[in-house]
Design brief:
Keywords: Signal. The chain is mostly beta strands and 659 residues long. The protein contains one helix and 40 strands. Strand 34 and strand 35 form a beta hairpin.
């Protein structure tokens, strides 16, 4: 044990044994070549390779003074402050170990969020406040190379680790070139974003430039500005701001311009307010200016709701939604009242229930107005463990709707899913659903609400003609695990079967199986063999969505991967597909990636994908991506010649900074 450690331990004993300072109970240990203590003043002084360890922080310096009364620390000379994923270095530090706040002078440092890129920064003065860093005359970069490829130089910056960076009067530099200056600059950390515009070319837009800017004004008001300028008059602009009037009330104004759209521009205002006793008010107003629209009507909706424990009510009124091409419905509530109970646990069981009653007038495009009332009850549970590895999901729905047209409609669903996880060989899943429909909704609603967007969540209940009555669905799946035959051979399999039964007397069966085989020829070469067979029998199902596509395909692949000793990388993945039914080859593809050796924290990367359709004698896919990757940024050129058999001739140039 060194002398300084022994002296340090003795000092700890002394500090904790002084009655006058018992209230301090300084939560640190200290090591140094020289240690002195003034009991009258309550001061600890140390010099020579000083190391102070707090609970989660470490401080290194040439000299340190600690005031046990005020909890202030003064560190001078070669100061290093270390905590989890963060490290700061400077000439002088004033720090309070109780509030964990302080000020660094002439400082540089870095922090490294989990899974992110290390961020380097420097400043004339850095304040540590509530775990954040406030920098003056700051330089920020994620480049590890001393000759940074990019840097942001700001008059003032605040770093919120794991969240965001906000800086003022920010100069953007690429190498030795000053590109331009932002008055305010905000970026989310952990995301690859760029402070510079991106450029590209494609058949639709021609040559274009895109720019995204997070316009930060203050903590309560900020927005996103997205701009696109194109040579073929497909310009776009969008301003989307959020204003927090209070912690519970938010205003969201939007302006959207798209020269390539029929409704060239629109403005929108969204209000979301939460008030006392669970009361909420939302409204959404939109003015949509079409080139040939003389109505100039305001579109939108207003919702007032309240939640009290598990119960809620809501009133919704729509305005001219049928005129909005971007709306998810072309009809209006005029208005509608909803009463309900949500996520209510039954007793001590895993069963959860929702209950909903609605009564409202619904106005359609042709000015037809129909009053509808409906009641829906849902009862379900998820992942109920019957035994080790055996889980049960249940789902029951009862739904009845009636209308002032003297029509009525009901749907009932009862279903469950069993899943048995087995460590050996396979997992087993079995599912059953019983669905029964009766009655008929008004024609304006479509058959079984098929064309009524309000019931997206109910289409599994009523997507079809109600003359079908009841139907049963049986599903069984054996999902085999990978079987390691030996060091070079692996096998996986899957078997499935499905049956559909209808009250009309019709039935439909569908089954299939799939095998995957891997053979490692060498450390670099891998053979992939896949076979998939899907077959149907019985009548064609009366419900089109119940029908499944038949398959009988064999896929042969050859995969090559080599990580060169000098640091390069090559990966080739080729595949040939053969249709057993038609006794012919269908497609051939090649996926490749080549990466050069990394030098000075940078490398080149080339990726390409080609797919050729042997039946049509033409290319389906032709893509190429060229990258220059640095430790802190990337230059990317993407060439898309063909997508889904359609000629694209698109070239995009991107530049990304890693935060």
């Amino acid at each position: 044990m060194t002398k300084k450690v022994v002296v340090g331990l003795m000092l700890i004993v002394i500090i904790y044994s002084i009655p006058a300072m018992a209230q301090a109970n300084a939560p640190f240990s200290i090591e140094a070549n020289n240690l002195t203590m003034d009991q009258a003043e309550g001061m600890v002084r140390a010099n020579g390779q000083v190391k102070v360890e707090f609970s989660t922080r470490t401080l290194l310096a040439d000299e340190i003074e600690i005031d046990l009364n005020t909890k202030d620390v003064l560190a001078i000379g070669n100061v290093t402050y270390i905590e989890t994923n963060k490290k700061l270095q400077g000439k002088r530090l004033l720090y309070n170990y109780q509030t964990e706040e302080g000020t660094f002078f002439n400082t540089e440092g870095n922090f490294h969020e989990r899974g992110g890129v290390p961020q380097n920064f420097a400043g004339e003065k850095i304040k540590m406040v509530n775990g954040d860093f406030e920098l003056k005359k700051a330089t920020l970069t994620s480049c590890q190379n001393p000759d940074a490829h990019y840097r942001l130089v700001a008059r003032k910056a605040t770093i919120y680790p794991g969240d965001k960076l906000i800086a003022k009067d920010v100069e953007v530099w690429l190498g030795d070139y000053h590109i331009f200056t932002y008055p305010v600059y905000k970026r989310s950390l952990g995301e690859d974003e760029t402070p510079l515009p991106s450029f590209g070319y494609n058949n639709h837009d021609g040559a274009y430039m895109e720019w995204e800017y997070e316009h930060y004004i203050n903590e309560d008001l900020e927005g996103d500005i997205d701009l696109k300028l194109a040579s073929k008059d497909t310009d776009k602009a969008r301003l989307d701001y959020e204003y927090d009037i209070t912690d519970q009330i938010e205003l969201n104004p939007i302006f959207d311009y798209d020269k390539d759209r029929e409704n060239t521009w629109y403005t929108k205002l969204i209000f979301d307010g939460d008030f006392a006793n669970g009361l909420n008010l939302d409204f959404d107003l939109k003015y949509d200016k079409k080139e040939e629209n003389d109505s100039d009507k305001i579109m939108g909706d207003i919702q007032v709701s309240q939640k009290i424990d598990k119960f809620y009510w809501e009133v919704e009124q729509d305005y001219n939604k049928e005129l909005d091409p971007d709306a998810d419905k072309n009809w209006n509530y005029d208005p509608q009242l909803t009463l309900g109970m949500f996520n209510n646990a039954i007793g001590g069981s895993n069963l959860i229930t929702n209950l909903r009653y609605r009564n409202g007038d619904i106005l359609f495009k042709d000015d037809e107005e129909i009053n509808r009332q409906d009641v829906r009850v849902d009862l379900w549970n998820d992942d109920y463990e019957l035994s080790q590895g055996l889980t049960l999901d249940t789902d029951t729905t009862l739904w009845h709707a009636w209308y002032d047209t003297d029509d009525d409609y009901s749907a009932y669903k009862l279903g469950f899913d069993l899943e048995q996880e087995l460590r050996a060989v396979t997992d087993i899943e079995f599912g059953y659903d019983y669905i029964y429909e009766t009655g008929e909704p008004p024609l304006a609603f479509g058959s079984g609400f098929e064309d009524f967007d309000d019931f997206d969540d109910d289409r599994d209940l009523a997507p079809h003609n109600t003359d079908l009555g009841w139907r049963n669905y049986y599903d069984l799946l054996f999902d085999g695990h990978w079987i390691v035959i030996d060091m070079d051979h692996m096998l996986k399999w899957q078997l499935e079967g499905h049956r559909r039964e209808y009250e009309t007397g019709e039935s439909y069966d569908y089954y299939g199986y799939e095998t995957k085989y891997r053979y490692f020829l060498t450390d670099e070469w891998l053979v992939n063999l896949n076979y998939e067979r899907k077959k149907e029998s019985g009548n064609n199902p009366p419900i089109g969505s119940d029908n499944e596509a038949v398959k009988n395909e064999f896929n042969f692949g050859l995969d090559y991967e080599n990580k060169f000793n000098k640091g390069g990388y090559l990966h080739l993945d080729s595949n040939v597909e053969y249709d057993v039914f038609d006794n012919e080859y269908t497609t051939i593809s090649l996926d490749s990636e080549y990466r050069t050796k990394e030098e000075n924290l940078a490398y080149w990367s080339v990726e390409s994908y080609i797919e050729y359709d042997l039946l049509t004698d033409g290319y389906e896919e032709q893509d190429l991506e060229l990258k220059r990757v640095y430790d802190c940024m990337e230059f990317i050129v993407t060439v898309d010649l063909m997508t889904d058999g359609e000629k694209k001739d698109s070239v995009e140039f991107e530049y990304e900074i890693k935060y």
